[in-house]
Structure formats: C-alpha cells, structure tokens
Write a structure and sequence with these properties.
Number of strands: 5
Strand order of the largest sheet: 1-5-2-4-3
Largest sheet: 5 strands, mixed
Oligomer: single chain
Low-confidence stretches: none
Structural class: alpha+beta
Strand content: 15-25%
C-alpha cells in the first residue's frame, strides 16, 4: 500500500480535512481486469494510455461519489459510496471532491491485506495465533470483510 500512503500524504498536505479513514473505498485489483470499473466504451479513460499511466503512477486518483463529480474523466459504475466516478489530479480537484463528498478509491491486492495483518501483529494489536484462529473459524475472505477490505478468491 505504498502508493496509497503517498497519495494520502499528498492529500493531507493539500486538503488536511479531506481524508478520513471512513472516506476510503478499497477495491481488490484481482477482482476485475478493470478494478475501477471503467466502462470499455463510455469513457475514453478505458483506452487512453496517458491516463492509465497517470493512474498507475499516482499522479491521478479515482474518486467515487453519490452525485456527479468533476474530473478529467468521469463515468458511472458499481455502487460503492455512489455510482459516480472521476479520475484526475488530486492537487487540482481536492477541494471540489471534498465539497461533493467524494471518497478516494484505493486499489489493493490480497497481498496488501496479508501485509496489513502482519503489521497488526508487529504493532501489538493482535497475535499471529489469533489471526490463524480467525481464519480457521471464519475464512480469510470473511476476515478481510471484517476489516472492510476486499479479498479476491
């Protein structure tokens, strides 16, 4: 989740009151070939190499909201916090997105979740034995859901 930390740090510098942990939407990049749900035909972002590079580098982020929001590219997709998505520069759009109640969409993988759990043991929040017991009782997918994180598989 290194990219996530970088983006969140930048967001906090630009708009300190913008990011709160409950304003993050995690999507598992293994869930879809297209984790952001960008329509193949309705949105030029699906075919724009430059835009995909900006997303991959963290120069742009994807936001989700219950109403249409500003962005360099925007589309309708799966309901998370709403069905309206936009991609663009957080530096340019942070204030608009905050005012429109948009939430940051954070891509992650199953490995990110496992690292998250390992970090919880390092921080003394839980133990490896507790995690193993939880996985044996509820399964790893349900454990991820307990932490409001997506699991593929």
């Amino acid at each position: 989740m290194r990219l996530t930390r970088t983006v969140l740090k930048m967001v906090k510098e630009i708009a300190p009151d913008f990011v709160a942990s409950d304003r993050l939407i995690y999507v598992n990049t293994g869930d879809l070939e297209n984790p952001y749900g960008i329509p193949d035909t309705d949105c030029p972002l699906a075919t724009s190499k430059e835009a995909k590079e900006k997303l991959a580098s963290g120069e742009w982020v994807v936001m989700n909201a219950p109403r249409p929001i500003a962005g360099d590219y925007f589309w309708k997709g799966e309901f998370r916090h709403g069905i309206f998505y936009a991609a663009g520069s957080i530096e340019e759009l942070a204030t608009d997105w905050r005012d429109d109640h948009a939430w940051l969409v954070v891509p992650m993988t199953n490995m990110h979740f496992l690292r998250y759990m390992v970090q919880k043991t390092r921080d003394g929040i839980t133990s490896l034995d507790t995690i193993k017991e939880a996985i044996s009782h509820m399964g790893i997918k349900n454990l991820a859901a307990f932490y409001n994180l997506p699991w593929k598989g």
